[in-house]
């Protein structure tokens, strides 16, 4: 288990982390989400010893991470860290040697990962000649080449085309299946939903939501109602008590109901407009869960008032 426990970090008067805690079991994939500037990179940098926490610690298999343990972590930093003049194959082999492989093993591992990430034909090219997405693949190969026990990846999918996304996703799932805990940050919530066993959403210095996507959904279940009323005017639901109109396109309306609101009253109001062709609870998407979780509670109360 990779555990983040009670992390605090303040830069000047900016309290970035205010008690961040979560765990990534071995063999599972954790999607680390949060708005820009929420503190995801800071959390990962603390794990890697690149920033110091004011309080709290990160443990791997019950022990606080030290330099030796960190050498067994595959890390992809946000700022990336490739040598532009080095050739792709040499670059990946270089990272393998940094993690303790001898020259022959490093070359073999480099060849394997360069091929698996679809860079075989670029092996002899300098990194600087590669597109951004291909440089990203080299960076990933560098994180994977030492057969790490843990993977910590800062926005590994950003900038990749769909084929790149698929090959990266497959590589990460394979690591998971081999028992490696994988933590990655991403703003691509569809990907997080598709790949991750669990998700954490960071906001206001804390994990405001964490669990499987199913658990997060259940927490919000029974709140989103889709009603299709083809003959209704645009404002038909605007003044219903305990109801917020999330979206409306033509008669296709998505409503959020307060827990105490009676759905049958909403149905009655819908019928008053004419035909009702669809009336059903809808599971929130991860994007909707994210919006809900990161929304400032004070603003939400204001909006409801
Ligand atoms: N070295 C630093 N000195 C001062 N402030 C910093 C430093 N590093 C990060 N911060 C601040 O900490 C906050 C969190 O930044 P961080 O990069 O961890 O967020 P993030 O969730 O990774 O954001 P993004 O999704 O945009 O990458 C931001 O307000 C940032 O300006």
UniProtKB/TrEMBL annotation:
Entry keyword set: ATP-binding, Nucleotide-binding, Transport
Domain named ABC transporter: residues: 2-229
InterPro entries in the cross-refs: AAA+_ATPase (IPR003593), ABC_transporter-like_ATP-bd (IPR003439), ABC_transporter-like_CS (IPR017871), DrrA1/2-like_C (IPR025302), P-loop_NTPase (IPR027417)
Pfam families named among the record's database cross-references: ABC_tran, DrrA1-3_C
Annotated GO MF terms: ATP binding; ATP hydrolysis activity
The family this protein is said to belong to: Belongs to the ABC transporter superfamily.
Protein name: ABC-2 type transport system ATP-binding protein
